[in-house]
């Protein structure tokens, strides 16, 4: 998971590199979180999105991903939660609410669109973190001394 700016990290050893095949495209998930936090989806700059998704060194393969456990571990929201917030719990059941939720419909459509864009433009490989493919709403926290070794938020 070395994502340093070392230009030879993903070059063959015989070329003076470290020999790794792929670099993680960490700017991609950061871009989505920034867009969701700071602007409405109808104001997204497609030129900026396309540039971020395709901006990589020539001949250096990258692994693209839309979101990671990094956002959820630090207590931030998943992309699905940024898109639908509390409607995740109340607007997804036609049994509970016979009228479809526009917030959920739009959120699900954007959730899929984000992944299609990342898959199509983001790199030479695609990575999905556990649960994120379905828009898992909860944040995660692994057992550690600070939370009393609790497994409560370890479910995904």
Which short descriptors sum up this protein?
globular, 6% strand, three-stranded parallel β-sheet, 6 helices, 156 residues, mainly alpha, 3 strands
Structure description:
The chain is mainly α. The chain has six helices and three strands; from the N terminus they run βααβααααβ. The protein has helices at residues 27-38, 46-54, 69-73, 79-84, 87-90, 102-121, and strands spanning 22-24, 61-64, 125-126. A three-stranded parallel beta sheet has the order 1-2-3, with no helix packed on it. The protein starts with 21 loop residues before the first strand and ends in a 30-residue tail after the last strand. The mean pLDDT is 83.
On the 0 to 100 scale, the average pLDDT is 83
Quote the distance from N terminus to C terminus: 22 Å
Strand fraction equals: 5-15%
SSE sequence, one letter per element:
EHHEHHHHE
What structural category do the secondary elements indicate?
A: mainly alpha
Order of strands in the sheet with the most strands? 1-2-3
Shape: globular
Low-pLDDT runs: none
Structural Rg: 18 Å
Please outline the major beta sheet. 3 strands, parallel
* Portion of residues within helices: 25-40%
Distinct helical segment count: 6
Secondary-structure map with pairings?
Blueprint: E1 22-24, H1 27-38, H2 46-54, E2 61-64, H3 69-73, H4 79-84, H5 87-90, H6 102-121, E3 125-126
Parallel strand pairs: 1-2, 2-3
